[in-house]
Amino acid sequence: MRRRCWKSICMLLIAGGLGILFVSLVTSPRSLPGNHLIRDSSSAWGKDSFMPRNHNQSSPYTDVSKQCSKMNNIAFLKVHKSGSTTVANILQRYAIRNQLNMVLPNKKRGSYGFNYLGYNGNFTMESVIPIPRNETYNILCNHVIYNRTMFKKLLPKDSFYLAIVREPEERFVSAAFYYGLVGKLKKTVPDINSTKYIFSEWLKNPWKYGVSMEVYNHVAYDFGLPRQSFHNRSVVDAYVRSLDSDFDFVLLMDYFDESLMLLRRRLCWSMKDMIYLRSNPGTNKVDFAFSEDDRKRLKKWQMADVAIFEHFHARFWRQVEAEGRGLFLETAFFKQALRRVNDFCKYGKWRWPSVDIASSPWSESFTVTLYDCHEMEARELIVVQRLQRSAWARYNASLTITPEPKIHN
User: Fold this and answer.
1) Which residues are registered as beta bridge partners of 116?
2) Domain spans of the chain?
3) Which residue in 28, 190, 204, 251 has its CB near the most CB atoms, within 10 A?
4) pLDDT at 283
5) Are residues 371 and 275 in contact, defined by beta-carbon separation less than 8 angstroms?
6) What is the pLDDT of residue 349?
7) Radius of gyration, CA atoms only, the chain
8) Within the chain, which residues score under 50 in pLDDT?
C-alpha cells in the first residue's frame, strides 16, 4: 500500500515539474528562425533582470547617450600596430553616416603612402584635400605624426583628441613580425633557428643587425617625440606630460572593448556607432620566447614607448574606476553583441538580410545589415580612396557658380 502511495506522489511531482517546464518554454523569449534574431525586453539583457527597481540617473544601468549631445569633432592619432585601423574604421563609418568632413591626404590615389597625411615637415594645409568654403573639418583619423600646431589649425577648438596605445612588448612582437624583422634575423643571426629565443642576440646589440623605425620607439615617434630624445628621460617625461594635457582620451588595445565603451560615454555615441569587426589582424608565423634578460633589454631599448604606455595605462584605469561597475556590465553586453554581429557578417549574411540586437539598459535596439558588414569589412586603403573621391567631388561642386536667373519684365 505504501509503495503505491509513493508511486502516486512521485507521478504527481513529475507531472507538475513537466508542466512548469512547458510553461516556461512557451513564455520565455527565444530566437526565431528567419531573417532576424529576435529578443524582447525580458531577455537576458532586459531591464527586469539587471536593473534594480529603485534605480536612478546615477545607476550603472543607464544609457548615457541620452544624457548628452554627440561629439562630431575628433582628432585620432593612428598609432602603428596598436589596433588603430579598427578604430579608424569606426570613425570613418561614423563620418560617412553623418556626412562629416574628414581630413584626407591630398595625394594621388594608389600611390605609395597616399593614405598618410604627412610627416613633420610635409604635413601642411597643402597636403590636405580642401573642403567647401565656410565649412570645417570634423574628423582626422589617417596616419600622421602628431603635430600639435597643424591639428589645432585644421580642427575646431572643441575637438576631442583621441589616441591608442598597446603594451610595449606585445607591440614590439607584432611589429617585428609584420615589418619583416624576424625574417631578417633568421638570415643574419647565427643559430637563430635552433632556439625559441629568437630576439636574444638582436637585443644585445640591435644596431649590429640593423634597426627599422617600426620597432624602435615607434609609438613615441607617432606621438611626435623627436628621435634624438628617445633615451633622454627628462625630455621624455616632460613630453608625456604635454601629451596628457593634449589628449582627452587614450584607448588601450589590450582592453579594447572596455576602452570603446568608455570612449562611447565620452562621445555620447550610440552602441551601434561602436560596433566593429577586427581590421588588419596580425599572425605570428613562428614560436618565440623572451628570457628575463630579453625583457629588461627590450624595456630599456623602448624607454620612450614604455613611458608613454605606463602613463596612459595608469590614467585609463583611474578613469575606469571613476565610472564604476556599470562599465563592465555594459562591456559584457557589448561583447555579446559583437559575437552576434561577427557571426552574422562572417557566416549568416548569405542567409538573412540583417540581425537585430535587442535593447538593453545601456542602449536602444539596433539592426546590423549587409551594408554595415560590407563597410566594416572594407579594407583601409579602399575606404581612403573612396573618401578622397567623395571629398574632391564635394569640393569641386562647391566651386560651380550658378548663374543668376534672368528677370523678365
Assistant:
1) 143
2) 32-53+63-399
3) 251
4) 64
5) no
6) 84
7) 27
8) 1-3, 5-7, 9-10, 12-58
216-233 pLDDT, tens digit per residue, is: 999 999 999 999 999 999
Grid cell 591608442 in the structure block, residue: 164
List the grid coordinates of 166.
Answer: 598597446
The answer to whether 168 touches 306, Cβ cutoff 8 Å, is yes
The label of the residue with cell 575646431 reads 156
Residue with cell 588588419: 280
Q: Say which CATH topology domain 32-53+63-399 has.
A: Rossmann fold (3.40.50)
Q: Please enumerate in sequence order all residues whose Cβ is within 8 A of that of 57, keeping only pairs 6 or more positions apart, or say none.
A: 67
Report d(CA 139, CA 159) in Å as an integer: 9
Placement of cell 603612402 in the chain: 113
Cell of 62: 543607464
The residue type found at 236 is V
Which set of grid coordinates corresponds to residue 358?
Answer: 535587442
- State the Cα–Cα distance between residues 313 and 250, nearest whole angstrom: 9
Quick count: other Cβ atoms within 10 Å of Cβ 373?
Answer: 20
**Backbone CA torsion sign across 278, 279, 284, 285:** positive
- Lookup: cell for 280: 588588419
